[in-house]
Amino acid sequence: MLGTGKRRSHGDARGGAGRRHGRLFAVLGAACAAVLATTLLSASASADAQEEQDAKGAQSTQSAQSAPAKSRAAAGKTIGYFTNWGVYQRNYHVKNIETSGSADKLTHINYAFGNVQGGKCTIGDSYADYEKAYSAAQSVDGQADTWDQPLRGNFNQLLKLKKMHPDLKVIWSFGGWTWSGGFGQAAQNPEAFAESCYNLVNDPRWEGLFDGIDIDWEYPNACGLTCDTSGPDAFANLMKALRGKFGNDLVTAAITADASDGGKMDQADYKSASEHADWFLAMTYDYFGAWDAQGPTAPHSPLTSYEGIPREGFNTEATIAKLKGLGIPGSKLLYGLGFYGRGWTGVTQTEPGGSATGPAQGKYEAGIDDYKELKNRCPATHRVAGTAYGHCGQEWWSYDVPETIAAKGDWAAREGLAGAFFWELSGDTANGELIKAIK
Question: Residue 13 falls within a domain, yes or no?
């Protein structure tokens, strides 16, 4: 989840990498993970041994493996991030949510991002949000905008999408990697902050669009793009104020996935904050990446730990276990999926743990690329810790594929989680390969 913003990203567990969405936005500005092989391509003894070890590791870390998977209804929510800057270089619009088939799979859209400035919620990009004019060909319903209509841009297109899908909810997400610096000031007067957010989310110009607010604070009383010293109670106080103002509307938050001892999750009172939230979105991706330019190579979104993982507590299973251990029920937790991969170059070792010379080249940013690009460029033909990776020439990339996403969904159902969310819609294929694999 992860400027503005996730995901990116949210460089969640690590903190310094930034959420993908944040780093992309900061780099690109306003202008600003395959073809999956059905058999393993590596026949080497070392690769076979590694894959056998991975399979054993996944079984040993999931005691409920033999339990029957619950139906998708047990999870319920599928939430996708839509970025306002995606309408520029990425050329991804609200219409693509419909034409890809994604709208039929989504229960909620998180609109990323609004900014946090001067202790208030503010607009992130007015042009993309509500000014950009859409032609009939670009519009979700085939109707062109007119020069004098009061609302245009993404907001108007999302209202049209909601009319086509009456059960679809849209939540406005504020902050993200680049724009989290404003939360410290906001936390000094949480009631005034909540008031400003409520007024902006419910502005009459886009009445009926938003069903609530999402807070993407990276990270409360811890370091992200900058270091935050707001105190351990600030996040809970902010969430309490938002709940008090938003009442029965949705109040949610994207949170750290760092389950290490003394890590980000230990720096703030997530349990108390959860009492005021409808749910938390744990950013279970970006655990590892090419911000560590020389490696070791490691999958950025492992479901479980594995022998040789660079840091303990940096995997989805550990994240969810720690949050539950704090007393937060699974019914308030969603796990995160990255619709992108992270990669290194100068890598000679196929298995994880190899050295590198730097980040692999990505379409928009070094070290990261969309699933729709990587599935053909570097097919992920190997498995480790419940996710996938590929070694292509000198490049090493990790990302989820439909099969690993489906397996993660089975795991989440056994864990009684509220559902899944992903960063972000434009990383999927034009026909929605990844979102259709979510259970």
Answer: no
Instruction: Report yes or no on 114 lying in a domain.
Output: yes
**Domain limits at 243?**
20-437
Question: What stretches in the chain show pLDDT beneath 70?
Answer: 1-75
263 in Cβ contact with 313 (< 8 Å): yes
Q: Give 22-27 contacts, CB < 8 A, sequence gap 24+.
A: 22/176, 22/177, 22/178, 22/179, 22/218, 22/225, 23/177, 23/178, 23/365, 23/368, 24/83, 24/85, 24/364, 24/365, 25/83, 25/85, 25/113, 25/176, 25/178, 26/177, 26/178, 27/364, 27/365
The answer to whether residue 6 sits within a structural domain is: no
Number of domains in the chain: 1
Has residue 296 been placed in a domain? Answer: yes
- What CATH number is given to the structural domain containing 40? 3.20.20.80
This prediction has a pTM of 0.86
**φ and ψ at 8, to 5 degrees?**
10, -120
Return the sign of the alpha-carbon dihedral for residues 293, 294, 299, 305.
Answer: negative
Annotated active-site residue 424? The verdict is: no
The catalytic residue among 98, 218, 317, 424 is 218
